[in-house]
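Note to self: keep these together.
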Amino acid sequence: MKIKLVTFCFFVAAIFASCSDDEGGNNKLGGSTDLETNEVGYIYTLNGSVDNASLGSGFKATVTDKTGDVVEIQLEGNIASPFVSQLPSTYVNSNGKVTISGKFINSTDGVGYVNGNGETSILVKYDAKVGDKWSYTTLGGKTLNREVISKSTEDDYYWGGMLIKVIEVEQNLPYPGFNKVVYSANHKFGLVGAVVTMEDGSVSYLSGY
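Structure:
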């Protein structure tokens, strides 16, 4: 089974979302970004697995900068030895230490990824309804289609030792080896999990707390 770095990254969908065109006509997020989870130094602890095999240990994502409404988050951790050789050396060294960063808008309205051109790709809006769809075209010309597939009406998603409500968005991954990603988000805690399905049918899980 072949994996890539983005398989365990909690913002896997966002890394692929370097949008150049918003076909849905809405690439703005309102709401407040004055959140504890946006404070510099805030740490998300992460767990990840591939078909029930642990991806490694010590995974965490730290808010390293906040400029206006945009926060920069750095992911780091130690990859289990079976997977080290399958990851790009740009992000992981020979000892399995991985480091990668991304910029986001995390507000009371939703979560968006900010690409290198400063363009925002919305991952989720909390007021969206099941069946809502939107699309983006990446800087590389790939079309990303997103759809809300479920929305909790009660606390039914286990996270951080408690049950919370989530909205789940499914997105295609038009890249070699990948099929789709479903990511879960909560209006208080932002992105809380991702499930990536590969072309070979293998499934990777990631959750943060």
